[in-house]
């Protein structure tokens, strides 16, 4: 008999492969996608299609150039996940070439050029997003409004969405409006109370639409925690830090700042905390590290929202903390069994 | 806690862990099986950790069941017994159950089928006899830890008393999937188990006795509870949640005590002892029934077996026999594992035997344990980290292992990994993490071993070098001793002449020498002791057990030696004071050279001593310390030489006072002769050099110089002869007769000096010319300095100055000496002094020149550094003495002039 000879362990948890992890994260975005589609029309789904095709093509092309097994790596669903995360993050009617640029850059430059899955120091989706955000600010700021708030009084139809994305929709202006974060950012000299009563983007329906979006992503994120695909540390730290920052500043200056609730329920707060910050490859490894990393992102989100040049700060917050992740890792090693205290840094030769 | 004695103990928790499918039900469906006797039993001699056992039987011997067939071979070893009666048919290499898949020496026993027991001698009085005897009995019964490692039980029990034992834990967790051998054992032999635990508790006397068992064994738990209640036992039962690897020793300790075994230490260090249930039962059987360890419970399981079950199997039974017994389907069998699926190892062949540590045979089908999936990239998902029971960062360790950053891996506590496989189990990318860690660990170990080897080689080399140096030093010492012997004769003769060399005078310096020697010896010994103590401390820190005992021995030896030396020293001072007294009383001015010689002898003696110690060191088997010690000795020798030179200069200054007296004329003459000889030799050398140069440039003066050389050599020879035979020289050098010789010498010396002067001047000119040339070539100042010419120039100038001093000196001597000699006899000492001063000045200049020369040589030939350094030291000594003498002389001259 030809017996297999390998060393222990001989068994493995069935089913839970990398592709399963990726699939589950993609599935967890479904509530958010549904809400976004319901609120802003078909644009999100069209974006997702464009992004997915671009991602798979870019990944396959680079894998072929790198002489890797194309099928094997495409089946890990990691490129598709990047595409999905970018697709939902981009504005629903952003021109197709913006999506293609973002996704192709994310896959080719942010991921494959670093060595492919597992070797990218930065979150690919956020690199793609940041690239198009700084390169094409005008299309990137065109968010659609909820139907009750916009002059057109209805959401874009499927054909209209296609037209807006692939060609041009002359009447697009009657469908778009500023996001709440955008609106608050440009309140100029108004104080908070006046802003919330006068600016259209800060009215109930607009705020509620974003509340729904964030709630949907929260649900998906909790599902990921329940599946033990992510741990609670990063999202809790991110949201906690954002809450504390918003709370402290609102306490001291209520007339010029928004409430913590506003910060947690607008923009990409939940999406960022549960889907972007938790990208395992570019984030920290230990639980303590994840807390520091997440808190850093939360603080940066608030700083960029309040004093930065962009209405939302998730992408830049995550990318900035990506830089810090390896360092945080070195200083947040857990205490190993049998050791009095955890080792920190990299003092070679020292033993405790 | 002890007052109420709860039956169940508090259970803590440990980090991580996994919940793989238990797969325990399959093997529990059938009752305990008893396989038939196989056609042969293969008994490996190394079934335990430690040295293999030593066979007691020969091929062809008939043995009875339970008879000892192999005995322990050293401390960490065990006995082996015949599992059944039969004939020894071979003692040969057979495949054994080992991860390496290699063969090892086995005793092959062919059963006769009678199962005839040997006489059993139970240890019924185990409660009354000493515990050591019980442990020895357990050793003879071949009891080893049956949980997996096979650690000889008596050794483990001995080690348990390192610290007060707070917890005695019986490991019944059996956390590995598939395995149910312990479960079955508890069910079948509950009473024996409890009785065994009680025997062990009698031996170790722990504060708490806890059985740790996973909650997936309800039948076993119930059985244990019943027996414990019946016996009204103190033993606590801790039911721990089912989680792999709760049966790992460290994890179970954490579960039951809340304490962690410190990294790199053993449970005994925190007062915990763990024993497997199988071991407890075996101990019970051995003590109450006298049965040695010859069988065990083993689980036969896996999809390839039609009737998986637990069996009580004799050691040595081939796995194939058991597979037959459990109806295996050879078509289905794809992987044969000894142990569980998490930490077991695959078997190459079913021919291997069951040994004392074989708890399970897992005959898995392909579907059951599929081949590992292809490895994907690590996405740092952190599932491994959540699962790691040691709280490591497996993904970081993987990263470091892959990039071979072993230092970082070690820093991330790679060696705290228990290789439980939990990380690999949960890894979504199917990365064989444990295999990576094993590879890194072995690479690190290999590197460490290579380092140790390299260190050993280095030490061997240094030891050899030290030995050679020591031999050279010995030769030198002998040479010095010979020299001393000849000069001693001379001084003896001299002493005999004035008839003042009394025995006491000779004895006094001898005792002085003795005490000096002793002091030096003590100093050497103390520094050696310090070194050893330091090494011992290091060894203790690094836990090099063998070294520690060795070093400890050496340290105590050294301490004794020092104590003895100090005692000796304490005795000598009583004699020592007599020495200076004798010196002053008798006012026998020891000649300067005598004192110097004594000092030299001291150095030689230290050298000899050093050699002796080095020899001792070579004899000590442990090579490790040689290097350091020898370095220490060399340093000591150097220090001793310094001391000696100081001592000698001191001695000289004291004796010089007496030497300046007219009584020292003889030695003065001798000195003069010596100086003359030195001058002559130097002159010879210089002339030789000049001749060489002249030949090189084919100068017409070559012949003349050759003539000069011949003359100079003659002169030098004469002087040396005179020096060698002071008896004959002394009368010649008597004040009256010295005049013509001195005149002669002066004339010849003057001639030579003139030649030297010319050469030196030529040298200066040459150097200056060269420097000028360099300057002309536009070289920078620094470059010129870098070239050797400025140095040469300075040297030449110094030489010239010295020569001019010599040149200038004789003339005034003659000038002043003549009138002085013509005048009153009173002036005679003054003239004597003046000449002496001049001679000393010459000596000083000469010594300085020589030091310069030697220094230069030292730079050019670093390989001879040692010998040159010695020469320099000697010359410096000479210089010092000469300067001291000069000072004295000038002082006395001024005194005399003032007096007049």
UniProtKB/TrEMBL annotation, chain A:
A cellular component annotation (GO) from this entry: plasma membrane
Assigned keywords, A-Z: Cell inner membrane, Cell membrane, Electron transport, Flavoprotein, FMN, Membrane, Phosphoprotein, Translocase, Transmembrane, Transmembrane helix, Transport
Enzyme's top EC category: translocase
Cofactor section: FMN
Example of a GO biological process term: electron transport chain
Subcellular location: Cell inner membrane
Record carries keyword Coiled coil: no
A Pfam family the protein falls into: NQR2_RnfD_RnfE
Family statement: Belongs to the NqrB/RnfD family.
UniProt-recorded name of the protein: Ion-translocating oxidoreductase complex subunit D
Source organism phylogeny: Bacteria, Pseudomonadati, Pseudomonadota, Gammaproteobacteria, Oceanospirillales
From TrEMBL, chain B:
Binding site for [4Fe-4S] cluster 1: 378, 381, 384, 427
Region (Disordered): 467-513, 569-593, 724-749, 805-829
Residues of the 4Fe-4S ferredoxin-type domain: 368-398, 408-437
The family this protein is said to belong to: Belongs to the 4Fe4S bacterial-type ferredoxin family. RnfC subfamily.
Domain of life the protein comes from: Bacteria
A biological-process GO annotation: electron transport chain
Binding-site residues for [4Fe-4S] cluster 2, renumbered to this chain: 388, 417, 420, 423
Biased composition (Basic and acidic residues): 467-479
Keyword Endoplasmic reticulum: no
Role according to the record: Part of a membrane-bound complex that couples electron transfer with translocation of ions across the membrane.
Organismal lineage: Bacteria, Pseudomonadati, Pseudomonadota, Gammaproteobacteria, Oceanospirillales
Membrane topology: Peripheral membrane protein
InterPro entries for the chain: 4Fe4S_Fe-S-bd, 4Fe4S_Fe_S_CS, Ion_transpt_RnfC/RsxC, Nuo51_FMN-bd, Nuo51_FMN-bd_sf, RnfC_N
EC number: 7.-.-.-
SUPFAM superfamilies linked to this entry: alpha-helical ferredoxin, Nqo1 FMN-binding domain-like
Assembly description: The complex is composed of six subunits: RnfA, RnfB, RnfC, RnfD, RnfE and RnfG.
Keyword vocabulary terms for this entry: 4Fe-4S, Cell inner membrane, Cell membrane, Coiled coil, Electron transport, Iron, Iron-sulfur, Membrane, Metal-binding, Repeat, Translocase, Transport
The encoding gene: rnfC
Name assigned to this protein: Ion-translocating oxidoreductase complex subunit C
Primary subcellular site in the record, as a coarse category: membrane
Co-factor(s): [4Fe-4S] cluster
Cofactor binding: number and manner: Binds 2 [4Fe-4S] clusters per subunit.
Gene Ontology MF annotations: 4 iron, 4 sulfur cluster binding; electron transfer activity; metal ion binding
UniProt xrefs under Pfam families: Complex1_51K (PF01512), Fer4_7 (PF12838), RnfC_N (PF13375)
């Amino acid at each position: 008999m030809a017996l297999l000879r390998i060393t222990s362990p001989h068994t493995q948890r069935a089913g839970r492969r990398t592709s399963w992890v990726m699939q589950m994260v993609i599935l967890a975005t479904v509530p958010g996608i549904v809400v976004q589609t319901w609120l802003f029309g078909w644009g999100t789904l069209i974006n997702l299609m464009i992004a997915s095709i671009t991602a798979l093509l870019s990944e396959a092309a680079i894998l072929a150039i790198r002489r890797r097994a194309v099928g094997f790596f495409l089946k890990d669903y990691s490129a598709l996940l990047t595409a999905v995360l970018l697709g939902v993050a981009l504005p629903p009617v952003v021109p197709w070439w913006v999506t293609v640029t973002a996704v192709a850059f994310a896959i080719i430059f942010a991921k494959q050029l670093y060595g492919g899955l597992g070797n990218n120091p930065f979150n690919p989706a956020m690199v793609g997003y940041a690239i198009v955000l700084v390169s094409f600010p005008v299309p990137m700021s065109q968010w659609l409004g909820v139907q009750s708030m916009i002059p057109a009084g209805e959401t874009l139809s499927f054909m209209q969405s296609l037209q807006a994305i692939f060609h041009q929709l002359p009447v697009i202006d009657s469908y778009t409006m500023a996001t709440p974060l955008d609106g608050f950012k440009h309140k100029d000299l108004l104080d908070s109370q006046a802003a919330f009563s006068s600016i259209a983007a800060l009215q109930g329906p607009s705020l509620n639409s974003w509340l729904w979006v964030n709630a949907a992503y929260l649900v998906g994120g909790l599902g990921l925690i329940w599946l033990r695909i992510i741990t609670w540390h990063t999202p809790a730290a991110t949201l906690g830090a954002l809450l504390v920052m918003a709370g402290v500043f609102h306490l001291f200056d209520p007339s010029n700042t928004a409430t913590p609730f506003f910060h947690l329920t607008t923009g990409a707060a939940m999406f960022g905390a549960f889907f972007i910050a938790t990208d395992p490859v570019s984030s920290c490894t230990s639980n303590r590290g994840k807390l520091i990393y997440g808190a850093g992102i939360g603080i940066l989100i608030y700083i960029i929202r309040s004093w930065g040049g962009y209405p939302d700060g998730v992408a830049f917050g995550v990318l900035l903390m990506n830089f810090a992740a390896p360092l945080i890792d070195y200083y947040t090693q857990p205490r190993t069994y049998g050791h009095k205290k955890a080792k920190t840094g990299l003092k070679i030769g020292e033993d405790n | 806690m002890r007052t109420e004695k709860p039956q169940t103990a508090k259970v803590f928790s440990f980090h991580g862990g996994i919940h793989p499918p238990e797969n325990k039900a399959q093997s529990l469906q059938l009752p305990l099986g008893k396989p038939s006797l196989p056609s042969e039993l293969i008994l490996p001699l190394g079934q335990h950790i430690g040295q293999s056992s030593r066979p007691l039987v020969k091929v062809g011997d008939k043995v009875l069941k339970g008879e000892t067939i192999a005995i322990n071979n050293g401390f960490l070893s065990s006995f082996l017994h015949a599992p059944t009666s039969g004939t020894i048919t071979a003692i040969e290499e057979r495949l054994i159950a080992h991860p390496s898949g290699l063969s090892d020496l086995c005793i092959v026993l062919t059963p006769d089928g009678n199962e005839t027991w040997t006489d059993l001698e139970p240890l019924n009085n185990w409660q009354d006899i000493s515990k050591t005897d019980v442990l020895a009995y357990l050793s003879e019964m071949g009891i080893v830890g049956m949980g997996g490692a096979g650690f000889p039980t008596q050794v483990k029990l001995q080690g348990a008393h390192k610290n007060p034992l707070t917890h005695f834990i019986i490991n019944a967790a059996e956390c590995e999937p598939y395995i149910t051998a312990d479960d079955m054992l508890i069910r079948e032999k509950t009473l024996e188990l409890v009785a065994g635990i009680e025997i062990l508790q009698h031996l170790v006397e722990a504060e708490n006795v806890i059985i740790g068992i996973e909650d997936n064994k309800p039948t076993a738990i119930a059985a244990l509870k019943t027996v414990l209640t019946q016996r009204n036992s103190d033993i606590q039962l801790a039911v721990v949640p089912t989680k792999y690897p709760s049966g790992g020793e460290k994890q179970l300790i954490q579960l039951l005590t809340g304490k962690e075994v410190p990294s790199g230490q053993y449970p005994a260090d925190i007062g915990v002892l763990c024993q497997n249930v199988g071991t407890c039962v075996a101990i019970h059987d051995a003590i109450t029934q006298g049965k040695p360890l010859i069988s065990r419970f083993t689980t036969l399981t896996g999809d390839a077996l039609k009737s998986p079950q637990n069996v009580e199997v004799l050691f040595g039974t081939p796995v194939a026999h058991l597979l037959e017994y459990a109806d295996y389907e050879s078509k289905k069998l794809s992987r044969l594992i000894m142990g569980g699926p998490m930490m077991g190892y695959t078997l190459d062949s079913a021919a291997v035997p069951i040994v004392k540590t074989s708890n399970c045979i897992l005959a898995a089908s392909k579907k059951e344990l599929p081949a590992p999936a292809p490895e994907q990239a690590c996405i740092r998902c952190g599932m491994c980290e959540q699962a790691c029971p040691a709280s490591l960062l497996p993904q970081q360790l993987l990263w470091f292992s892959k990039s071979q950053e072993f230092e970082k891996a070690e820093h991330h506590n790679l060696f705290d990994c228990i290789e439980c496989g939990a990380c690999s189990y949960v890894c979504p990318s199917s990365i064989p993490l444990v295999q990576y860690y094993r590879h890194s660990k072995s690479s690190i170990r290999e590197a460490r071993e290579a380092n140790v080897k390299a260190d050993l080689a280095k030490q061997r080399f240094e030891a050899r070098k030290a030995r050679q140096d020591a031999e050279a030093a010995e030769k030198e010492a002998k040479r010095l001793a010979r020299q001393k012997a000849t000069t001693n004769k001379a001084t003896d003769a001299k002493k005999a002449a004035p008839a003042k060399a009394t025995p006491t005078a000779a004895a006094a310096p001898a005792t002085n020498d003795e005490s000096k020697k002793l002091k030096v010896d003590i100093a050497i010994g103390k520094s050696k002791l310090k070194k050893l103590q330091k090494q011992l401390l290091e060894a203790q820190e690094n836990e090099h057990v063998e070294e520690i005992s060795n070093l400890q021995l050496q340290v105590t030896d050294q301490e004794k030696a020092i104590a003895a030396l100090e005692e000796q020293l304490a005795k000598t001072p009583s004699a020592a004071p007599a020495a200076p007294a004798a010196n002053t009383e008798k006012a026998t001015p020891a000649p300067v050279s005598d004192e110097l010689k004594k000092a030299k002898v001291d150095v030689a003696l230290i050298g000899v001593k050093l050699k002796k110690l080095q020899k001792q060191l070579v004899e000590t088997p442990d090579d490790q310390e040689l290097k350091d010690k020898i370095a220490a000795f060399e340093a000591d020798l150097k220090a001793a030489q310094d001391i000696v030179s100081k001592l000698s200069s001191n001695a000289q200054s004291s004796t010089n006072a007496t030497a300046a007296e007219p009584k020292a004329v003889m030695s003065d003459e001798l000195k003069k002769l010596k100086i003359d000889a030195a001058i002559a030799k130097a002159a010879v050398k210089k002339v030789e050099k000049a001749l060489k140069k002249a030949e090189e440039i084919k100068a017409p003066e070559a012949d003349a110089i050759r003539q000069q050389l011949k003359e100079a050599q003659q002169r030098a020879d004469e002087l040396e002869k005179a020096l060698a035979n002071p008896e004959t020289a002394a009368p010649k050098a008597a004040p009256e007769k010295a005049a013509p010789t001195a005149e002669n010498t002066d004339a010849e010396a003057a001639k030579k000096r003139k030649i030297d002067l010319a050469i030196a001047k030529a040298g200066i000119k040459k150097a200056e010319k060269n420097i000028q040339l360099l300057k002309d070539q536009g070289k920078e100042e620094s470059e010129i300095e870098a070239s050797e010419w400025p140095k040469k120039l300075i040297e030449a100038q110094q030489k010239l100055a010295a020569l001019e001093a010599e040149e200038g000196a004789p003339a005034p001597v003659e000038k002043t000496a003549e009138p002085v000699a013509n005048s009153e006899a009173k002036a005679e000492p003054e003239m004597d002094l003046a000449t002496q001063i001049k001679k000393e000045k010459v000596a000083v200049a000469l010594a300085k020149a020589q030091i310069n020369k030697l220094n230069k040589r030292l730079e050019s030939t670093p390989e001879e550094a040692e010998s040159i350094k010695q020469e320099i030291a000697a010359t410096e000594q000479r210089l010092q003495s000469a300067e001291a003498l000069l000072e004295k002389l000038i002082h006395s001259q001024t005194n005399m002039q003032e007096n007049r």
